[in-house]
Write a sequence for this structure.
């Protein structure tokens, strides 16, 4: 169950990271409220996942999910470059996350 909570926390991390772009420097109320809510949810769920998962593994997976999701949405929503090297580097992060899941025993 902790792994599922951690994945949801990572999704919320993507939400607040992308939400930052929409706040326009915290000058827009509702995007700012949504971003803050996603940040709170992400941190709270990470804290819950840490009850059962090792800190280093959970944090690396959480930030990895956030990094991958934010980078991909940056390409899709904000037309950031989707170069072969960028996609290759994102793939390496995915491999790292999968590797951590494989070598970390289930709680």
């Amino acid at each position: 169950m902790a792994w599922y909570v951690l994945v949801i926390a990572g999704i919320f991390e993507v939400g607040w990271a992308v939400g930052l772009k929409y706040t326009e420097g915290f000058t827009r109320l509702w995007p700012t409220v949504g971003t803050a809510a996603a940040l709170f949810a992400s941190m709270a769920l990470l804290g819950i996942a840490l009850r059962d998962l090792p800190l280093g593994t959970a944090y690396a997976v959480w930030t990895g999910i956030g990094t991958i999701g934010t980078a991909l949405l940056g390409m899709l929503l904000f037309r950031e470059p989707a170069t072969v090297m960028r996609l290759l580097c994102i793939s390496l992060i995915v491999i790292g996350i999968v590797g951590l899941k494989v070598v970390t025993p289930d709680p």
User: Anything to note?
Assistant: The mean pLDDT is 96. The longest helix spans residues 55-78. The two ends are 8 Å apart (CA to CA). Helices lie at 2-23, 29-49, 55-78, 84-103.
